[in-house]
Write a structure and sequence with these properties.
Elements: E1 3-9, H1 14-23, E2 30-34, H2 41-47, E3 51-54, H3 63-73, E4 81-86, E5 89-91, H4 95-105, E6 109-118, H5 125-133, E7 139-141, E8 148-151, H6 152-158, H7 169-179, E9 183-194, H8 201-222, H9 231-254, H10 264-272, H11 278-286, H12 288-303
Parallel strand pairs: 1-2, 1-4, 2-3, 6-9
Antiparallel strand pairs: 4-8, 5-9, 6-8, 7-9
Helix pairs in contact: 7-8, 8-9, 8-12, 9-12, 10-11
Length: 314
């Protein structure tokens, strides 16, 4: 068994070199897809032994398009598996071997992912939120994130990533893989360490807005039964982040006492805090506002026949 790797990034600097070093000895070929770096990342990656693909930046960038470019470069490789990883992550020693062993034992499995941890959760509440977000249950899963070991034959069967998606490309890929009869698994094993660098409220807000856009677009693509992909997430965002605030505002115009209906938000935080850390509960509720904005922007742009521009948060 053998695996290659596709790394994507832009201006990752020393983090990219750490990522490439963590893959050395775990995989055969390493392809780095650079998205317009101006910090010497492409040259540094080549010097570190990676095959470098410079993405055509005259075409609107998406991470999905970058990953597809890396997979295209690997066509003809004899490796059965490919490790996909973002350039701001380091891969845990032994992860690739662990994931390959699992996929070898589970021939219907297309994807194996493990535990992604945030490198500096102490740096900000937003980094800690990321660390919590990635702590998902072990076992058969509906989706993976940007770091995962995948079976190349399965990727080729479904046509790779959807290059038009500005976010949520991995869960959308997993929908198509599962529709084709494959399965996705989360293993109880350390996989990658990630450096989110979300230190400001504005960064978190933009990331949450992007998530709302991804929810709405994912539901538009695969919202029909039986998948109902991201339908519930979209509805929750629109209800808590748009519909309910408008209803409370209109009610408050009828009677000032009806502004007390806004207390439903702290009550929702308290309800969620019974099973979540308090800060996670708070930002889960607060996050519905940017998520609703993101979802509404998707609907507005779709109605006008436009594509939403990439939402970068750092």
């Amino acid at each position: 068994m053998r695996a290659d790797a596709v790394v994507i990034g832009r201006n990752e600097g020393a983090r990219l070199l750490a990522c490439l070093a963590s893959l050395t000895g775990q995989v055969g070929r390493i392809v780095y897809v650079d998205s317009g770096s101006d910090d010497g990342s492409a040259e540094a990656a080549a010097a570190a032994g990676a095959e470098v693909v410079a993405l055509d930046m005259s075409v609107p960038f998406t991470a999905a398009r970058a990953r597809n470019a890396g997979l295209e470069r690997l066509k003809g490789s004899q490796a059965e598996f490919v490790q996909l990883v973002d350039g701001d992550c380091t891969v845990d020693p032994g992860w690739v071997a662990t994931a390959m062993d699992f996929l070898a034992e589970e021939p219907e499995a297309a994807v194996a992912c493990g535990r992604r941890r945030e490198e500096h959760p102490e740096a900000s509440v937003y980094n800690r939120l990321c660390d919590h977000e990635w702590d998902t249950p072990v076992g058969r899963a509906l989706a993976c994130g940007g770091d995962a070991l995948m079976r190349r034959a399965a990727l080729e069967q479904v046509g790779g990533f959807n290059p038009g998606l500005i976010a949520g490309e991995e869960p959308e890929l997993c929908v198509r893989l599962r529709q084709a009869g494959w399965s996705v698994w989360r293993l109880d094993a350390a996989m990658t360490t990630h450096d989110a660098r979300i230190l400001r409220f504005g960064q978190w807000w933009k990331r949450s807005r992007r998530a709302g856009h991804a929810f709405a677009e994912g539901a538009a693509l695969h919202g029909a039964p039986p998948e109902r992909h991201w339908v519930a997430e979209t509805r929750r965002a629109l209800f808590w982040g748009a519909g309910l605030p408008v209803a409370i505002g209109l009610a408050g115009l009828v009677s000032p006492w009806l502004w007390l209906l806004a207390l439903v938000y702290p009550l929702q935080v308290a309800r969620l805090a019974r099973r979540l850390p308090p800060e996670v509960a708070l930002f889960t509720v607060l996050g519905k506002f940017p998520e609703a904005i993101g979802a509404l922007s998707f609907y507005a742009n779709r109605a006008r026949g436009r594509k939403t521009a990439l939402m970068e948060y750092r």
